[in-house]
Amino acid sequence: MATPHKWFDQSQPQTLQAAVLFCYLNAALSILYLIAFGATLPLILLVAAVGANGIANEKRWGYRVAVAAASIYVVIQLIAFVTFSKSLSSVLNLAFAALLVVLLLHPESRRYQRIWFR
Question: 83, 50 in Cβ contact below 8 A?
Fold first, then answer.
């Protein structure tokens, strides 16, 4: 019997739960940003949301996709911070991008995915 599809798994550690919610929130905000400004830069956050869905369903590929997309987004935010503006909003964007990577790479998250993900 196939396991049901989940959007969120409450049995996972808090670090993974927060990362999944953060990926979904970032994806929703990137869609709004895309609609409002037509910018395609935040599309990497949609890839992170696909990874978050894989994490919620305990798929190893989902974890890897989310980590890769979040890492790419941190690099993009860092380049934007250094190159363009050093405003408070740029600092906050960089901080929240780094927070997502920290949540995903936290030892508790890594240990859980190594043991339980397929």
Answer: no
